[in-house]
Specification:
Blueprint (H helix, E strand, L loop, with lengths): L4 E8 L7 H11 L1 H6 L4 E6 L7 E6 L4 E5 L5 H23 L10 H4 L17
Parallel strand pairs: 1-2
Antiparallel strand pairs: 1-3, 3-4
Helix pairs in contact: 1-3
């Protein structure tokens, strides 16, 4: 998960009962495998003393920042969203490295073409 991120900032009040997602996400970020996937990812934890709602801010390697409300979004959902966005970033990078434009635009007429499909041949129809 961290391989797609350059920075993670987790803000919460330790006495707030709504910090479960922050604590779980922090544990996932501190896991050995997560740290090994991107050692340069900055992890910042800000422990607050006010009634500020817990939140998780992530900055992707392309500079895009997203802020998640940790009171209403479970850690697994945040992780899943990061992984989905990361796969999109990998695909974009792959196309750019190959010299292709991004996003890939498929002409309308190609979208409407019929696809004949493939039909499996029976064993007796195959030539040997």
């Amino acid at each position: 998960m961290l391989k797609f991120l350059s920075k993670v900032k987790i803000e919460f009040n330790a006495l707030d009962p709504r910090t479960a997602a922050c604590m779980e996400f922090l544990a996932q970020c501190n896991a050995r495998t997560a740290k090994e996937s991107n050692p340069s990812c900055q992890l910042q934890v800000k422990r607050r003393t006010d009634s500020f709602a817990p939140q998780i801010s992530v900055t992707f390697v392309n500079g895009v920042e997203e802020v998640f409300d940790a009171t209403s979004t479970p850690a697994q959902t945040i992780r899943k969203m990061i992984l989905e966005k990361g796969l999109q970033l990998e695909t974009e990078q792959m196309f750019r490295e190959a010299g292709e434009k991004w996003p890939v635009l498929i002409p309308e007429d190609e979208l409407r073409q019929s696809f004949p499909g493939t039909k499996p041949r029976k064993a007796e129809d195959k030539k040997q």
